[in-house]
């Protein structure tokens, strides 16, 4: 029986049977793993190093899935080493896979599927497409995306969304600033509408700070200028290429903010699974509630 799947670049991959060995970009691999598809290998992007970024790895961390390298280190020899039938990546422009070079994949003779995670894609759409691919690859069928019954204890994605709504309700809610710490002299402030998970938070009632002009996804500024927004909750980029959230208090001009604001880790490359998104939303809900307690 022929297996086929059309990705968000309108590229259709057809095979004689379902792919059994899948290599994936870390973000995509973590999402598929949550959906019951275990990659045979994962790789990073040009922003990653010689080891997998724990923030991007999600539940894959500690699973002994081979890491094939990142950027220029990801060549056809590395890809072939795990004998994949298929590569799964993401796309931001619906034309190119983000982390794997198309020519490298072509030389390795491995087809590539890429799912869209760009600013204009709703979070629910991202989750739906990953679920669709996970099912096509033989993963266990996720429960209703509006309420993943497999989530332990908290009732899944729908419950996490309700928790955010509840924490955001009542008067002017806590001001939330999403950022990526670039170093002692500058910080990148996220534009909420250009990140699907932040846009989803705004739709749930969260009061997200809009940064000043400059840049498409980020507005780069000084720590002093960032402190001027008076945020109550900081969503801090937890990826390896950013300064760790725990170290934010050391940044010049930021100490006073860090001492009073609640810091929540934010992975701008969330795995495309209900579980990963629910965990993030619950952390935000807890941060909002803690910020309210601080100002009560």
Automatic annotation (TrEMBL):
It comes from the Bacteria. This is ABC transporter substrate-binding protein. It comes from Streptomyces sulfonofaciens.
């Amino acid at each position: 029986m022929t297996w086929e799947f059309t990705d968000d670049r309108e590229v259709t991959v057809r095979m004689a049977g379902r792919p059994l060995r899948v290599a994936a970009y870390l973000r995509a691999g973590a999402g598929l793993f949550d959906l019951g598809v275990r990659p045979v290998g994962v790789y990073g992007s040009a922003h990653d190093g010689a080891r997998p970024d724990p923030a991007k790895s999600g539940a894959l961390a500690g699973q002994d899935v081979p890491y094939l390298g990142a950027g220029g280190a990801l060549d056809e020899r590395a890809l072939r080493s795990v004998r994949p039938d298929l590569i799964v990546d993401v796309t931001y422009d619906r034309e190119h896979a983000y982390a794997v070079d198309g020519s490298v994949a072509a030389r390795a003779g491995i087809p590539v599927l890429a799912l869209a995670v760009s600013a204009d894609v709703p979070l629910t759409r991202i989750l739906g497409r990953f679920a669709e691919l996970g099912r096509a690859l033989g993963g266990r069928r996720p429960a209703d995306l509006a309420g993943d019954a497999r989530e332990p204890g908290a009732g899944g994605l729908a419950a996490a969304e309700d928790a955010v709504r509840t924490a955001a309700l009542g008067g002017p809610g806590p001001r939330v600033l999403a950022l990526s710490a670039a170093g002692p002299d500058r910080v990148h402030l996220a534009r909420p509408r250009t990140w699907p998970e932040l846009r989803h938070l705004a739709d749930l009632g969260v009061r997200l700070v809009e940064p000043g002009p400059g840049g498409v996804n980020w507005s780069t500024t000084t720590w002093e200028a960032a402190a001027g927004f008076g945020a109550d909750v900081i969503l801090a980029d937890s990826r390896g290429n950013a300064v760790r959230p725990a170290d934010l208090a050391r940044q010049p001009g930021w100490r006073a903010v860090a001492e009073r604001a609640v810091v929540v880790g934010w992975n701008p490359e969330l795995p495309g699974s209900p579980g990963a998104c629910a965990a993030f939303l619950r952390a935000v809900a807890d941060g909002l509630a803690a910020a309210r307690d601080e100002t009560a």
